[in-house]
User: Fold this.
Amino acid sequence: MSDEMHEARAAPPSKNPSLFARLKTYVVATPANAERLEQAPFGVPIDVQIDPLRVASEAFLDRLQRLDVVTFGPEGLPMDKWVAFDCAQLPGFTYGFCLPVEQLEERERAAFELPDDAEGWVPVSTYIAIPMFEDGCWFGHNLASLNRAFPWRGLHHLASVTKAMALRAFGCQRFIGATQWTSMALHIHTRFGPLTLDTAYTPAHSKPETLTYSFTVTEESLRAALGDPAVELARPSADFELSAEDVEGMQRLQRRIEEGERYVLVNRPRVVEGHIVHPIARVG
Assistant:
């Protein structure tokens, strides 16, 4: 499919419409699961389908693993291939944007450690979600994009666009996620609207300073994350702020949640004198 055809096809309003013109979309899914996908989320067809059950998919799946290293560095979120296969590619889907190898610059090929004879597709973003037992409910596992790693590409807002497109393609009705209070990804996740706090301190996680959050997936929440200027989500006023370094504050908030009080993370974090703080509202 040519770039001209990409430009002509429908694409949702977003903060970076060039993404849909310059990049292809892909999904990693088994044939049986692929039948459940929305094949053109927001009118954008899925260009590349990767079957994890086929040997021919090996090169692309290796590049997906390399994407994590290029995005986060060796200390980032390393994931053994068996984890991706068992927890994501078999039960659910992986959605993202990609480029053909021949369009990569030499420095980009080097980052992916591609041999001279490499062919096929290279992922520039990825979103992994896992279906839960509750109908229509998905758990977010991993989000990555090359926006920061390849700033010369003009991939701004790629991460939030990827997640929004993925949730539409997966048919997600309710979303659950878990991340650390210090994570910059909360700038992305809060674009979907206020996030219900299911935990504020989570000893079950290897990093107890983890919040578990959820939200109902709506047309408005997805379009807001895409960057549609016509959508403005309602957000309550914050009652207090929680520092990403305040472990005792996280524990106090967790006790209140367990006692039945309800709280939401209102909006993206802000930095105050070098410290990350989060706006919190009590809603019940």
Remarks:
- The chain has ten helices and 13 strands.
- Residues 58-72 form the longest helix (15 residues).
- Residues 173-284 form one domain.
- The chain has two domains: 1-129+142-172, 173-284.
